[in-house]
Amino acid sequence: MSALDNLPVVVIGAGPVGLAAAAHLHERGIAFTVLEAGDTAGAAVRQWGHVRVFSPWRYNIDPAARRILEDAGWVAPDADALPTGGELVAGYLQPLAELPALKHHLRYGARVEAISRLGLDRLRTAGRETTPFLIRLADGEELLARAVIDASGTWGIPNVLGASGLPARGEADVAAYREHALPDVLGQARDRFAGRHTLVVGAGHSAANTLLSLAELAGSTPGTEVTWAIRSASPSRTYGGGDADALPARGALGSRLRAHVDAGRIRLLTGFSVQALTPAGDRVSVAVRHTAGGEEAITVDRIVAATGFRPDHSITAELRLDLDPVMGATRALAPLIDPNEHSCGTVPPHGVDELAHPETGYYAVGMKSYGRAPTFLMATGYEQVRSVVAALAGDWQAARDVQLDLPETGVCNSNPDDSATGDSCCGSTSATEPTGRGLATGISGGLLAAPLGLVTLDAAPADAATGGCCGS
Ligand SMILES: Cc1cc2nc3c(=O)[nH]c(=O)nc-3n(C[C@H](O)[C@H](O)[C@H](O)COP(=O)(O)OP(=O)(O)OC[C@H]3O[C@@H](n4cnc5c(N)ncnc54)[C@H](O)[C@@H]3O)c2cc1C
């Protein structure tokens, strides 16, 4: 009997993937506790609750969660409908979190600040694998665990505005003017944007979504001005393929964005990077540099940072993690999801083996497991936690039998940080044989408002590298 045997598995985060892990742990009869920093289940998803997702319900429900929900009389939403983030919480995450099987193991307002091994710092090896994890919460409380499933996502750590990955000069001084990605421009955040000048930074679909909302607001509220700054020389990737786009809804909305730019309703700055930010009265002055040379200063009221997200590895600083130096994912997973190598975000099935670190018993799953790669899907996370929990149960056959069905799309890469892949949607050639397709995180349903077809990823689809923007 080891010191670990009577301890629970601790799951960090009650988002879609953390709750799915809880459902699998419940089914396997493994004791668990879920620690959630927010006040509710799906706290991060609620923050983009006004955005419609692009994968229909059938891909958004974890199989174990579905089983225990249906046993309790829950009726699944229309499999082909595309929920908003708010509907995802109200129709699925909240009911799941309220099931007695999960509810009594969920703690809200429990922010994990650090994870270590009881009595062992990172240097100490002897007895490490049989020593409990020590989890410290922000209020100082400490818990012990036999294993940790870290599903804390990346939503809380937006990328900086500065082009070099470091904050632009003065960025910290203008936090009051800076908006997180995807503000609810036409809803509860309307007053912050109406009649004001907003700068949107980023070339991904999050940026496009916000720009379209701002353009709509400008049409009804005089004095609303919109400027859009991207690092690449052309906005073509954000526009998509117009009438020729493999996904008509995306093409149409990309065309709408282009029409606003062409008509001058949105001022586009290409080849620009943010250098410095300075408060200027109740506004902010943004110094931007053109890659071709030359700087200019723009004075705006709000800045929307649609520049992507990064994982918070600081909470695991005392653990032995083997992270890929580029992606911040495990070394085994990184090449499978690296947008520098994979023009179409190819994602083969993967599970416990690809997620394991030298620190036995610690697994980052879900959005966090992808590090800075932008092509995560809930369905991928559900398969990750099924595999990890099977391994924790000692069922290695199930753990290694990884399967993955992803919604098909032509989206190669909607990395909100357009520096990662350069200008071209399909510009780089994959060094690795693609075995499937991924979708990009942060795409709003507004841009892909059509249900997506099914691709089974247990083998390389013949057209894996040719779909959508990669092939047509
Ligand atoms: C706008 C948008 C649209 C998307 N659309 C789709 C889509 O259509 N289809 C799709 O499959 N995927 C989509 N995604 C990608 C992804 O599936 C979602 O981001 C999903 O919410 C990720 O789930 P998660 O559980 O890994 O992380 P999250 O949902 O981010 O959940 C993490 C949870 O951990 C909590 N937490 C964070 N830090 C701590 C801490 N230190 N201690 C305790 N708790 C903590 C947070 O409060 C949060 O509740 C989209 C993402 C965005 C942003």
UniProtKB/TrEMBL annotation:
InterPro entries xref list: Auxin_biosynth/cation_transpt (IPR050982), FAD/NAD-bd_sf (IPR036188)
Pfam families to which the protein is assigned, alphabetical: Pyr_redox_3
GO molecular function: flavin adenine dinucleotide binding; monooxygenase activity
Region called Disordered, residue ranges: 413-433
Chain ranges passing through the membrane: none
Record key words, sorted: Oxidoreductase
Name listed for the protein in its UniProt record: FAD-dependent oxidoreductase
Originating species: Micromonospora endolithica
